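All the exercises in this workshop are built on plain-text protein records. An example says more than a description, so a record of this kind follows:
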Amino acid sequence: MKLKEIEQEFISELKGHPKTKKLTFLEGVSMLVGTNIGIGILSIAHTAKHAGFFPLLFWLVIGGILSTITMLYIAEATLRTKAHLQLTGLSVRYIGPVAKYLMFISVAVTSYGALTAYEKAAGDVMHDIFGVPHYLGSLLFFIPAAGVLWLGLKAIGRGEKQVVGIMFVILVVLIIATFFKADINFANTLEMHWSLGAILPIFNTVVFVYSSQYIVPEMARGFSHKPTMLPKAILLGNFITFAMLALVPLSAIVLEGLSNISEVVTLSWGRAIGDWAFIIANLFGLFAILTSYWGLGGMFITNIADQLNKDADNNLRLRFFILLFVSLPPLFFVLLRVADSIQDAIYWPGVVGALILSFFPILILQNSRKKGDMQASWVCPAFLTTFGAKATIVIVYLSATVFSIAAKYGFLDKLIAIISG
């Protein structure tokens, strides 16, 4: 984008747009991929450190399929609704007033937990690359991250499209470089620890990584000029997400082994490839964190605006004050060291997300088919909306979450003994 075009876009944003900004198909896919991969792609290898690659791959497949189905449920519901409602608004309309508060709590917990993890990871990466203190790294990351959030949906979509493209190139280079290393060992992928206490908690991290259900209405708003692009963008975006989430841990594990994986995987993975790779691997890490920050932060801003019944897209002054409410608490959490680790920051958002997302998308779809105020331009395939499909979603999300909590707090064996009689 030329400097003059950037200036015109910025001025246009300041003046406010009379209409919702349109997203291209690539921008929509980039929003989804960018939101998904963020801290997840950097931390998910470490999540598998005590279990192994194949247990991680199992949950990536299960979580990816179920997440895609629930996202398609929400997509159809948005296409049956004239108003551009966020997930909180859809919950109120199609479930009831209580759902408004439950969904908003879920959005807030997920957003604050994720944004805190992003800030902490950014500080770690900046420290390792440039040698700056962790707190300064978090502050330096905060400036461009919050700045683009302030400018709104089109700026987020355009920014993510550019950054995701760069990330893809970097990722391909790193993966190719990994498999040209003489000391890679594919036997590392077979190293597994069949302990439920290690395997089950992976699920909540996977749920967190795939928790882009919240951003589907935001994408629908950008695709209002061509709604049929929405389900296609979801399918392609989640497929790209799965591929990246599987390839990064695979590359790191075959090169380093499970025991050497760092909490932010690019730190150890880059070093294992070589000095040149250390820099670009961590640039990839920063870009991944940045795109997730934009996607999830933008969704949270719009949800708050919906709660206030205000338009934050065309009023940058209002958007600025909402931005402070969204972006400052996570920064303070990091600076005050409230979260000891990235895993701690994203664990409970994954738990809350799993509980809410096991029921709400199903109820929203079901009631939108009865009470929607417009004909949907796209409908979920029948085999995805059968009783069996819905029951599978609920059972997997709820049971995996309960067992994961039990594993984390050391009473999994007792719970299994009680269930088995």
